[in-house]
Amino acid sequence: DEHLSRFWYIMKTRTAPMTPRLLSILLLVFVSSARASADPADSTDEEPHPDPNEEDYSGMVYIGRMDENGRRVGFDMDNGIKYIFGTSFDETHKSIAESSLAHAHYGPDVEHDIADRSRGKTREQVLHEQRIGKLDLSQGPKPFGWFEEHPLDGGAVPPRVVRVEPFFIDIAPVTNKEYGKFVRATYYETEAEKFGWSFVLSSFLPNASSLETAEVDPEAEDWVATDNAYWRNPEGPGTSYKYRENHPVVHVSHRDAAEYCKWVGKRLPGEREWEAAARAGIMDPTIVPCSFPWENRAEDGWRGTSPVKSFKSNAFGLYDMTGNVWEWMRGGKHKSRIVRGASYVDSLDGSFNHAATLGARATLHGTTTTGNVGFRCVKSPRRRVEHHWVYENESDSGSQLVLEDSDGNRQFSQYNQPRQKIETDDDEFEEEEDYDPTKPRPDERRGRKKVVKPRTLTSDEL
Fold first, then answer.
1. What is the pTM of this model?
2. Are 105 and 114 in contact (CB under 8 A)?
3. Rounded to whole angstroms, what are the CA distances from 126 to 116, 122, 129?
4. Tens of pLDDT along 212-265?
5. What InterPro entries is this protein classified in (predicted)?
6. For the chain, how big is the Rg over CA atoms in Å?
7. Which long-range contacts (CB under 8 A, 24 or more apart) does 448-457 make?
């Protein structure tokens, strides 16, 4: 061994006397060096996180914590953002802002730097509430994923402080032009094309006589099931998306949206991510109430969807976060997928349909396609590549029933076969006649390898 030879060479050529302590230290250094050269993966330090300031994507905005110089905070600190998640239709969120969000601290010492005096509680009481929380049993137990909705805009009540990891989000919803590139490149067929129909607003139908025999949505009678309506023909046969290339793409299902995001290397946003981006903006301009759906004053210049970026962006530089089209989220169950943002058929005051507020929320079946639902994509920043060890045959060995007698003989179940023994010419690995049950058998000696650990995001969203 090279390291052992080097150690003995130093011992022989050394002229000064060596104490036992110095000898043990020197031996330990050489042993560690030998192990590092034999298995570099064990000795190398963990790779640092990439700097988020060096990462940018065209047409996307970074949402995350910034320092006092306007630079993005790295992953060496808590760089997620906190905000009040819930309805914005009433004033219920203000008291939460004053008592909770205003006193939220960041940094490596956040657990030990709590604004106790401002809350009127001891530090121990605050920590206990953060870790344990309060359980309200006044209205009985709630099922998993329970979401208490506001009666007008569908947002969560009561609002609560939440935290989201940093992310990038599209500046605007995906347009017809962008979705057309995806369809031409992949020959993708949307679910509306497969089904042969989609929902169109009754006042947008080119032929009003078709209303006499048309089928409507039982929960929204103003939406008519129109044959051959899909993203290229938004109102059915005889209509076209031409001259609307920069409008948000509509008549796409949850799967149609997710497939596009996957194609461009992104994903659908979580609703907490979406609302964190939306709440950086200003309130929508006042909408004058009208008689829905037949009276359409088009006071913003458009009867239906408007071209993206037609109106002022919010403080993050994001467009159309409310009021143009509903946007698919990645949460929810298949029969109740989440959409956020409201659309052009909603009102600000909730006098008809939903209230077009920052907290506006609704659920649709995952296969629903309609003329007022689109989407945008998000992307997570690059993270450090993490590794872990996996053992040979671990994935396919499975659990199996094994009976072992006092002599060490094993009997495997008929559904599983034992792993093959390692063939070797080395005598030290040969099984002895007297088996010691406290030592691993030769067929249990498994090699290990270092593999990339998959990064799994966990969330308490629906």
1. 0.71
2. yes
3. 7, 6, 5
4. 666 766 666 778 888 899 999 998 888 888 888 999 999 999 999 999 999 999
5. CTDL_fold, Sulfatase_Mod_Factor_Kinase, SUMF_dom, SUMF_sf
6. 31
7. 448/389, 448/390, 448/391, 448/392, 449/389, 449/390, 449/392, 450/41, 450/387, 450/388, 450/389, 451/387, 451/388, 451/389, 451/390, 452/385, 452/386, 452/387, 453/386, 453/387, 453/388, 455/383, 455/386, 457/165
